[in-house]
Amino acid sequence: MWTAPDPGFETGIPPVEPGGLGPAIDWAQVEQSIDALAAEVHALYDAAPFGSHILDAQGTYLEINARELSWLGYRREEIVGKKKLSDFLSAASQIVLQKYLAAWSQRSVLVDLELELVRRDGSRMPVGLNSAGFADGSGQSAARRGVMFDLRDHQQQKIDVLVANAAFDSVSGMCITDSEHVIQHVNQAFTDLTGYSAQEVIGQTPRLLSSGHHDATFYQHLWQTVHEQGRWQGEIWNKRKDGSFIIEWLSITAVFDAAGKVSNYIGSFLDITGVKTSEAELFRLAYYDPLTQLPNRRLLLDRLTQALAGARRNGQSGAVLFVDLDHFKTINDTCGHAAGDVVLVETARRLRTAVRAADSVARLGGDEFVVLLENLHPEAGAALAEAERVADKILLALGRAYLLGAQEFHCGASIGIELFVEGTCAADLIQHADLAMYHAKAGGRRQVRVFDAAMQVQLIGRTALENDLRHALERQQFELYFQPQVDLQGQIVAAEALLRWRHPERGLVAPAEFIALAEDTALIVSIGLWVLQAACAQLKAREAMPQARHLQLAVNVSARQYRQDDFLSTMRQVLRCSAIDPGKLVLEVTESMMLDVPDAIGKMTALKALGVRFSMDDFGTGYSSLASLTLLPLSELKIDQSFVRKLGTNPHDAIIVRATIALGQSLGLEVIAEGVETQQQRDMLAHKGCQRYQGYFFSKPVPVAEFDALLQPLASC
């Protein structure tokens, strides 16, 4: 507060006496004016957009404005005369301040510092301090005035610059162009990913990287999106300097100036070539056959489902062709699987050539292929005619010889056709075409069959029979029948064990109805094991019967059983558990089975060493050579009934029978003629040297009890 001056106070102006000539001074008014001015100064001081303070020589606050108080978070009375500036500084800033205080002797120097305040709430705030000292009346340093500025925005700007620099030098390729798409800057990652240096691309446009993979429409859409939305991102194919492709995930962002016009474009991209390659490989493995590169079953079903939906929309028709190679297994067995693979690859090529580009060819597995024909005539008859023409073309293509090294092989194929039917799903169409293909094979192979309702009925019946067959073992519905084998005197010396299925509703099911089904479903393995175990049990039971202790029992063993890895160990276990004389067990094999099982001779030889005997069944109907016959550990040859049946009517069959008997005798084998139905056939066989017979002339296959009754005459002799 300002006060009136002492009358003795010398101002240099002579005092005006009361009543003098000069006007009298109103000191109270002067004091009020000075107070008002001081208040205005203080108000301006507190309202300043920066912090301000006065420190004494020891650094204690003498004055502080409102802005600096708000930064610190304290009241004026808590600071003035009580706190030092250093009390509100971080440790690092305190060191900076101490160095400043040591330089107070240079009080005329204006000091500019960057400090960090520690506020009441513990948060930190960057500030700039401009400080200068002033002296008292004696010329000594009395205090220092300071002005503080908030550096938070400045610090953030520095951080943003650092972040931007770090981002620009990241693993992402970066390219900055002007508004005319001329490249201004690129980073090191750009050079690493594209092979172009900054000097090579600056001044060029990104068209330098164009791969030609995308058309003009693609780029038009890209830039339209950038212009409308300010940015675009997506997958793009570009080309490196060395000409190789790079697949990028690219982001393009437009930068606008203060007037709202585009000043620059920033492109940022990552190399996703490896990722896309891995995705493509996974897709290929999931949806394509690795050998032929054709679509597999999964992709075929997907395409077929889409084709059915498309056919409903546009009123067109379509068809499924199920293609299966004939006698393909013979190539695998005679030339090896590598040769078989060559045939499959060539088959895939021929199929693709035989159909239209819009049609699909798929491999389901093995030697099974499916052709999907779309956009056929809407009328069923015309659509079927189109499908049959394609099928005939395929038969012609696959009927040509396959060249494997210096050898030629002929496969041919059987084809089943099913047209698109309203309400039928993709899986059913394939199943129907598959069934039609089996009818083509049954009809003599190298043929085409079209699925019809009768096949559907047959399919339903086959499915029901298969379901029943799967439970027949556990429900003990199988039994053995024996058919006698007799010598020249008519005495029963052996028998063939034949499987019968006594179904509770179907009655006695003929083997022709279920044996092939058991083979197709692999149930023959478990059923065949039951037959072996039951036959050995019957042999063991007859060791105590005088009229049957000499008996030999023949059992048919399928190729599937022989192919099992554990076939030998299973046979050893059966022989051990039954405790029979192995020499009384005869396993019947066929010529075709010898081709189906590559290691058949080795397995037969191992069992022969245990005492088991082998009989070649249906001799003359297969494909084995006479030379290979000498390698087999056989004990018997069975003349197929097809030759026996024509004795007396077909001289060629009589020659085959005579040659077979002579061959067997020369190899030291017992020769058995099966299918003997008349006395004439028996006598002709005997005349040619055959000494054992089997057929309805002697007995049909009978249950075990009836067979034992047939043995009684032998016991009475």
Descriptive overview:
With 717 residues, this protein is an alpha+beta fold. Helices cover 43% and strands 25% of the residues. Strands 18, 19, 20, 21, 22, 23, 24, 25, 26 and 27 form a 10-stranded mixed beta sheet that branches. Helix 11 (328-335) runs antiparallel to helix 12 (337-354), helix 12 (337-354) crosses helix 13 (380-399) and helix 17 runs parallel beside helix 19. The chain is elongated, with a radius of gyration of 52 Å. Residues 1-13 have low confidence and may be disordered.
Poorly predicted runs of 5 or more residues: 1-13
Strand fraction equals 15-25%
Q: How would the global form be characterised? A: elongated
Helicity range: 40-55%
Structural class: alpha+beta
Number of helices: 27
Overall number of strands: 27
**Distance linking N and C termini:** 159 Å
Quote the average pLDDT. 84
Radius of gyration: 52 Å
Major pleated sheet: 10 strands, mixed
Name the features:
single chain, about 725 residues, alpha+beta, 10-stranded mixed beta sheet, 5-stranded antiparallel beta sheet, 27 helices, 27 strands, disordered N terminus
Secondary-structure topology with pairs:
Blueprint (H helix, E strand, L loop, with lengths): L26 H21 L3 E6 L4 E4 L1 H7 L3 H4 L11 H12 L8 E8 L5 E12 L5 E10 L1 H17 L4 E6 L4 E4 L1 H7 L3 H4 L14 H14 L1 E9 L5 E12 L5 E10 L1 H15 L9 H18 L2 E9 L2 H8 L1 H18 L5 E6 L2 E9 L3 H20 L2 E3 L2 E3 L3 E7 L6 H17 L5 E3 L2 H20 L5 E9 L5 E12 L3 E3 L1 H10 L3 H18 L10 E5 L2 H5 L3 H12 L6 E6 H6 L3 H11 L2 E7 L6 H4 L6 E4 L1 H4 L6 H16 L3 E5 L4 H9 L4 E3 L7 E2 H7 L1 H5 L1
Parallel strand pairs: 16-17, 19-21, 21-22, 22-23, 23-24, 24-25, 25-26
Antiparallel strand pairs: 1-2, 1-5, 3-4, 4-5, 6-7, 6-10, 8-9, 9-10, 11-13, 11-16, 12-13, 14-15, 18-19, 18-27, 19-20
